[in-house]
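Hello forum,

I keep getting stuck at the same step: I have a sequence, I want structure tokens, and every attempt I make locally crashes halfway through. Rather than fight my setup again tonight, could one of you with a working pipeline run this one for me? It's a single chain of 269 residues.
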Amino acid sequence: MLDYKIYSKDNSKEYLVLLHGIGGNSNIFAKQLKFYKDHFNVITIHLPGHGKSFGIDKYGNAFSEQAVVEDIIATLDILKIERAHFIGVSLGSVMIHYLMKSHPDRVISAVLTGAITEFNFISKVLLFVGKMIKSITPHLWLYHLFAFIIMPKANHKQSRDTFIKEAKKMKREDFIGWFNIAHRVAKSYDLVPKLTDKIPKLYVSGSEDHLFLNNLKKDIKQDINASLKLIEKCGHVCNIEKYKEFNRITLDFLKGNRNHKVKPAKQIS
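Reply #2:
Ran it on my machine without issues. Output:
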């Protein structure tokens, strides 16, 4: 199972699962944990290659986003959690898209932060350059480059520094493995509006998330059960940069979408 940590366990509360971005870990949710655990049983899960979770070499040639989703579900099964709310940041939001498509019955509601539905021209150029130099460049140099292009402004510095700091704990082969499948991001959103039309979804993005925001706005127009909240003067990682506003917006949404039919939170026997 994947590495995880549970913050409080009260059968009168529903579960809230937090999924980090590439190079990150549960530390990126430091400003959310205390805030959320008064209302939910909060679980942070480390994706493969992050934290103390196994590396992607476990999958061999079968490494894929859907294979990771199955390990997320397996972890929840072992914890006897049938349904939960989910919050994902960047890569975490991509994984939630896959999870909602294949296991919609496991998701009560979803918050997708810094969500990526498509790459724009600049993003595609960045991926191409990364592909060309990944074999001759230390992966942390590549990560630094990505971090500065995705979060370039002075007010993005805390988010940028946090992710760079945490990425230093990641093995090169794990980072390269995730990088190698990054071009498939668009597939993560394919059919999401059709297959997840009964799942309440809140997209939270910074107004300065310049690589991904325009495509996100266009794509979610087709999803009648999705809404977008913009946080002004904020970049890609809203939960760090504008955490007070992020916490208020997301908690209001989560509390408004509690699964009243299953109270306390139903668990697998």
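The beta strands are 4-7, 15-19, 41-45, 84-89, 107-113, 201-206, 226-231. If your local run keeps crashing, start a new thread with the error log.
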